[in-house]
Each structure stands twice: as structure tokens, then as C-alpha cells.
Fold:
Amino acid sequence: MTRLTIALLIPLVFLGLAALVAPSFIDWNAHKPRIAGVVARETGLNPDLAGNVSLTLLPRPALSLGDVTLSGDRGDSPLRALTAERLDIRLALLPLLTGAIEAEDIVLVRPAMTVDLGALASGRANDPLAGTAALRRLQLENASLRLIDEDRGIDIAIPEIDGRFDARDSRGPFDLKGRLMLADEPAAFQVSIGRIGDDGSAALGAQLLIERPATGSIRFNGRLGGRPGTGSGGGRSADGIALTGRLKAEGPDGWALLAALPPLGALAADSPNAPLALDLTADLGLEGGRLTLTGLSLRLGDMLAKGLVGVRFGQTPTVTASLELNRLDIDRELARWPDSDRAGSFAGRLRQASVPEAMHGSLSVAVGAINWRGQIVRQARFTAEAIHGRIAIGEASAFLPGDTELRADGTVENSAAGLAFDGKVRLRSSNIRGLAEWLGADSAAIPEDRLRQTQLAARLHIDHRAVALSKIDGIVDNSRLGGAATIALRSRPSFGLDIAIDRLNLDAYLAPASDAPATANMPRDAFLARLAGFDSSAALQIGALTWHGVNLQNFALDAYLYNGALALNQLSVGDLSGLRASAGGRVENLAGNPQFDIVFDGRTDSLARTARGLDLELPAHFKALREARVNGKVSGRADRLSIDADGEINAADFTLQGFLGDPFGHVTYDGSVAVHTRDLALLLGPYARGFAGDGDNAELKIDGHGDEKAARLRASATVNRLEASFDGDLLVSPAADSGLRGTLALRHPSLDTIPLPDGRMLPGPFGAAKLVAAVDAGSDGFRLDELVMTLGNSDAEGGLAIDWQGPRTTVAATLDARRLDLAPLVETLEREAGQEGGPAAGGGWPRSVIDFSSLLGFDGTLTLHAAIVDLGATALGDMAFDGALKAGRLEVRDWRAGLFDGAMTASGSLDVATSPARVAFDFRLDNGAVDALPPPYDGMMIGKARGDLHLRGESAGRSIFQLVRSLDGEARISGRDGVLRGLDLAGLLDRRGERPGIAEARALVAAALDGGETPFAHGGGAWRIERGVATTEPTVFSLDGARAILTGRVDLDRWETRSRLMIELDGPPGAPPFGVGLSGPLLRPDRDPILRPLATFIADGGFARN
Structure:
């Protein structure tokens, strides 16, 4: 039995060995046509078998074909081409024994497949299930898939596909599943096709699962069909295949899911770090070359979009979309782009994008709320239509923050460098400051009533190079503007402006100085780095500009900043209260040590008018200044700028030359100013008369050098014969020590006039003048210490301090004089007070208005002591004066001096803050010597006496005439141990006992009133002054044997008197008084002797009866 078994096995072994060896002796390449037919039948594709063919029988029969190419030349196949490194066909054994080749399984090793999406979408692939009739199993190992659409420029590659296809029989069902790589992420896929019905359709289920990270899945459930001629159910329509069903995509990170799907991955290339959950559902339909997504619901994070999308495929595809979004978070989307290159990213996308020429479509999008820049944009709408590479935007509108409505329309077209938009934009706002703050501008410093009503319209052009506004026409508050603006879209910030404004009140937009934020000085490098960090061009024209209260007409700026260099083509003002000014030039190397080359000029026809326009108050004598001009140049590097300027003011020429070092850093300077005038009167007005005498020339020169902390100054001036000099230091910081310190000296050989406080000039000559003082001036005021001055015979020393830090300037002066020569001043005042030859002699005081305005500008105190005050005919001895000026009221608090060998005290006030000015005074003279009175008062009737005078009064007026005419007050005088001159009472009384005739008696009385003198022991009386008229109560002097009684009035307005001095004799009884009537000028009145009553009394024997 064993031998039989072995005998049977030996042939079987040899048979097996023959089966293994025999195929090696067969040339299978000779059977390629037959094998190609099998492959074509099984796949529906035309094979090209370029490699060798081999056959193995164990463990199961299989053909291996190397270097295989399969092409879809048949018009109903979307497969354009397939190449494989090797194709293995596993054969059915029994058919092979009969000589038939029947494939049970096909394995493609490293196949590369190309699918024509255009054929699939357009319906040229009439039967998508073609080629599955006999195929049971297909396995792919490390395959790659390429999806193309030449008409639309689509070319997508999907690598590393491993999968398996299984079919129960030729009518299905079919199952395809496997794994692939999408955007470097592993994914699993599965496609299930149900049994093919009679109409050629089948149920279709598809699923794609992205595995790492677990970002989501895409599922489809529906029906697929496509054999021609059916046209019912879910099968093929007359125009191509039909696909209907429900599409659903979901995942915890929607952006990551999109990133894994070509070609949608480009949309999510810069997806944000924070994931957004995705949930998409839609009814998908593909029929007759038309794809529709209806009932579309897309939720991405908190955004929900609903609507429909339709695509009609063909030679010219058409896309239609209508979507409504509840909200859109732009802030979140912008966070995807780095801040440093958002402009570049936007420009790059515009440059790379294009509108497909072979695509038509329409889009309508409405968004309820958009979160942008931290606020909400409401009711955004966008409608557009695309045709032949051109998008017509019918509406782009939204309500922006700040109650602002924005609308735009226009077209988007392809250009040589990418997409370009050209259209119109309109903006209307009732709170433009709210819009500005939303855009990042700080408007806190702008008053609340500004930046309100705004209307703007413009042409808008956007491409990858720039965003440009042209034909701007709008109104902002009360200003109308027009022009153009451009922002370049590149990594280096660039912008351009060409704006014209009819009027602009810039002050209305500036915060008060007290509210302005305090800012430190920006270092030069930081400031210049900012300028060098961007490019710009600016052309600005303003018809009427108000800035810091100054009105400028026809303001113009034309400048260009490029690559760290500034070209100032024009900076000009057409009219600033008569001033015309301009500047121009270049500044190179802003980022390093800038190189300046700037010229400037200015000219005015009326310097006084220009000063008023600049809110500068010139002294009255400067208001006649007319023409002025200045021309100059600034050149050199910033660390040492050369300044060279010259100009003219009326008849004065001036030059400025020097160097300014590092104006943005540690400032240094070294230069000089020189001024020369040919007509001093044009510069100094009436003050020039005080320096006249040797011509009309004046010279001023200032030399200085220093830095931002301190400077050494040396100044000299010559004004006709007046010489002035200063030598000292100017300290700038620290603030507590800042100021001007040095020595001031003034000299004049002979002053002819001196200015009075009311602007009048006091005529001289006064003699030589000299002043030397130590100056200490700061931001709060200045002091003159160690002050020594002489004027003619006057000399004084002391100090002067002026403080202008408070609300009003204050002046405090303390002077100690050995001698003050005021004789010229007294002489002038006496003439004006009505002395002979003066105006009052003709019956009137000066009526010219006295200008006390100089007393309104400051407050002050004066403490003065003088050993001798020379008043000409008399003098004050050991005078002490203490006065104060406050708010226009001058108070003479205490004034004491020796006068007329007596003691004088006085006090009073002058109030110039009222209109008219008011004067009040209280004057006392105690124990004064009448004989010390100066002429012409020394010729009065009273002599050799000592007396007291107390005078009080007040008046108001604008001139001396009004002050005298309105004087009210009282006076009291008393005298003792004196004589009445012009009265010889003793000679008259010696004739008592005689009875002369009437003629002799008359001569006797007349002789008593015409010479001699009569002693009196005491006397006095009171005067009442009303409205400039002094009326005396009886003023009585006690004589030896008689009384002298003075009655009458003095009209101070007219400087006239009408009075009577009567002598009443103590005896004989019944003797009538006699005397003299006085009328006419006060100091030289006409005399009218009253003789008759007493002469008659004597002739009748009145003296004889004594």
C-alpha cells in the first residue's frame, strides 16, 4: 500500500513542478493583445502595456503587468489617464484551465490617476458606473489622484491613497473604502453604491472622516444614476447624470476641516488658533449640468448662514448664491493675519486673485450684525453680478458706529496685476467723532460740539497697489472739502492727500490749553524715525484757516516725503492780516543726521495790522509801522544749522546770522543779530524825541552762544546818543534757576525830553543820564539790584522788581536819592496850572484828555527817600514817600517832607479804573514860613508869618480842566506873628485928633493902603470849595488897633478872584471900615481901594472926637 501511495504521489509532484516551471518557458508578452482586451473589458479603459508580462500559478493564478497606462478615450468616462508601476490580475482557475482569462481581482501598485472634473460635471460622463459590469474587486496600493478641469484651471493632487473596491456582481451593490492623505492629514473614506436598478440609478452613501486631529466628517446620502434613456427616479436626465441627496459636514474645528479639503484649504490657510465648531446641512442636487444647494444652513461658531447656492456647469459656468447671516466676526478673521503685514496680506490676495473669465454668477449677502473693531456694524448688505470676468456690485451698504451710513457700488475687474475695484462711495454721519474713535482715532481732546454732521461722496479705486479716493466732495461740520486721498498697500506705510477746504476753524477742534494733555518732548531720533518710517505726499489748500485766534487766508501746503527725505515744495499763507509768507526746500537723511536746505520769506504792508491779526497789542507809537519784510535760509546738518536772514521794518534793516546745533537734541547756538534804522521816529514814535539831537540813526547788536541750558550774551545798542549794553548769561534749565542774569548799563550825554506816564514828553534839557544795575530776570519777572542812576543833578540808588507771574503784573521799587532835580517838571506843571503866560491866564485850563491807561496794566508799590527834592524856586527836605497802585487805584499812603521851613504831610488817591478818573487828597503844612514861599506867591499880602494849611478835596474828570472844575472840598488856614504888607495902619492911626479936609483925609486913607506893613498877632479862616469855586468864611487877622477881614471867592476854573479885604478900626467909635476890593487874575488882581466912608468920617471930625 505504501508503495502504491508513493507511486501515485510522484506523478503529482512532477505535475506540480511542471505547473510551476512551465509558465517560465512561455512568452506571455506575445499574449499582450489578449491580456489588454481582458483589462479593457474589466476596467472600461484602454490599456497600454509597456512593461513585461509574467504569470504565477501558486498560490493562485495571477498575471503581473509592469509599466501600465490606462486612458479614458471613451467619451463616457471621466477618467482621463491612469499609470501604474505594476498591475496584478488575479485569475479565476477553472476558466484558465479552459483557456479563458477571467479576472477576479485587480491590484494597482503605485497607480497615478487623472480624473476630468469637467467631463463629470458637464454630463459628458453618461454612465458613472461604467466599467463595473464584470469587476468584482479592485485594490489600490499607494495611489495618487489628480483632479483636473482645464477650462477652469483646476488641478488638485491627492497622494497616498490605499483602498479596496468590492462588488457582489455586475449590478452591485458596490463598496469602496480605504485611507488617504489630505493636506498632510490622514483620512478614512467609504463609498457605498446600492444595487443598480433598471433605470440605471442606485443609492449612494459617502463618508469622509479626517482622523488627526479629529476635526470632523463629511457625509452624503442620496441617489446616483446615469445610463442614457431612463430619465426616471434618480437616474439620468436628458442632459447628463443626476445626483440628489442630503449633504452634512460637521466638526469641532471648521477651519481645520476646510484646510484639509482641496481646493478649499486655501481659504483657511491662516486659520485662527481658536477652533470654531462647524455644522453644515444642505439638500444637494446635480442634474443636467446644474448643482444646487438648497435649504443651506451653515453654522460656524456663533455665525449662522442660511440660503441657497446654485452652479450651472458648462462652457461658461454660472454660480448663484443668496445668503443671510445673523452675525459675522471680522475681528476674529483679521486676527488670522499678523498685524505687521495686514496691508501686505490684503495686497497679496488682490494681486493673486482674479475673476474667472469663463464664469457668470450673482451673489446676495445680508448680515444682521458684524463685530468689527470691538463694535457692531448693522444691516450690512452686498449684491453683485459677475459676467465675463467683471463683477458689478449693485449695493454694498452698512450702518457703522457713530450713526453712520455707508454705501458703495461699482465694479471689480481683472487687471494686469490682479483684481481692481472702481466705484463710488457715499457716507452720511451725525456723529463722525464716534466713527473716528471706532477707527482708532483719539478724539477726546476735541470739543464735544465738533465732528458731528458729515456728508461725503467720492470715487473709490482699490487694487493691490493702493486704495484711492478721488473726486471727494463733502461737508464736515461747517467746512466743505474736496480732492483726493490715497493709501498705498505695501509693507512700508504710504499715503497721499490732495485736499481743498473752503474754511476751517481749527481752534474749534483744539482743547483749551489747560485741558491739553501734557506731553514730553520727543527725542530727535524718535521723531525723525517716525518721519523716515513712511512715505507720503500732501497737497492741502484752505481758503480761510483760523488757528489760535489767528485768521489765515489762502493757506497752502505741498510736500513730499519719500525714503527718509522731505521735499517741501510750498508752505505759504496768502494773507494773514496783510502778511504774505512762504517757505520751501528739502530735508535729506531724516533717519540719520538730517541735511536742511530751506528758504523762507515774508512781507506785510502793515505791521500794525498784522500784529492785530496775531492778537498782539503794539504800543501806540508803533501802530504807525507799515511795510516789513524778511528773507532767509536755513541750511546744513541738523547738528549745526546755518541761519542767514535779513529784513526791513519801515526804515529799519536787520540781519540774523549764526548756527543752531542739534535742534532736536542738545541744542546749541552761536550767532548775532544786528538792527539799523535810518528813521528813529518811525520805530519809536514820540519816544524818539527823547533821544534826538545827533541824527536819526539807531544800531542794535546782540552776540550770543550757548546751548539749551545756558547762553552767554553780549548786547549793545546806540540810539542816536543813547548807548545801552548788557553783558550776562541766559539760563534755561533747570526751571527754578532759569532766567537772564548780568549787568545792564544805559548812558546818554544830554537828555532833551523825558516821557511822562500819560504819554506826553517833558521838555528839558535834563543833562547827562546814566543807569547801571544788576539784572536778574526769569519767567516770573525780573529784578534790578544794585541800581545806580544819575540824571543831570539827580542821583539815586536802590532796586526794582517786576513780577508778572500772577494775574496782574506787579512792580515794587525802593529808591534812596541824595538829590532829585524836579525843577523842569514843576516848571511845566506851573505853566499848565495857569501861571502868567500859561493857558489859565487866558481863561482856561488844558482840556486835552489825560491818558492814564498805563496805570491800568500793573500793580505796584514805591518807597522813595530823598535828602533834597529840588522844585526850582523851593525844595523838599528829607522827603519820604510811600505809595501803592492796585487795580488802577493809586494810593498815596504817606508823604512827608520839610516844606517852607515847616512840616508837610499828605495822602490821597487817584482812581483811574473808573470813568472819569477820580482824585481825592488830604494835605497839611504845619508851621510853614510864609517868607519861604517862592515867586510869585512871595508877593502876597501876608509876610514874616508862620502858619498852618489843611486842604482836603476830591474831583473827577478826564482832563485838568474837568478835574479843577469839579473840585469839591475845604481848606483851613491860620497864621501868626506876621505882617500884612501894603497896609500902613500906624501912619493912619497917628493922625487921630486931627480934622483934615476931605481931600487930605482921602489922601491919608489912600496912603494907608499903599505901602508899609502892619503886624498881626494871629489870624485865620475856613474856605469851602464847590465845583471849582472856593468861597471863604470871614478870615480875620488881629492887628494892633484893628481887625483885617477877608471875604470873597476864588474861581479856580478861571484862576480868578473876586474878594474884599476890609479893615475895621478899634476906635474912634463909629469909624467905618476901609479896605480894598480884589478882582481879576488870582496872583495879580486889580485893586479897587474903598476910601470914601472913612475919609468922610475923618473930614467930619471923627478922628478929632477921639
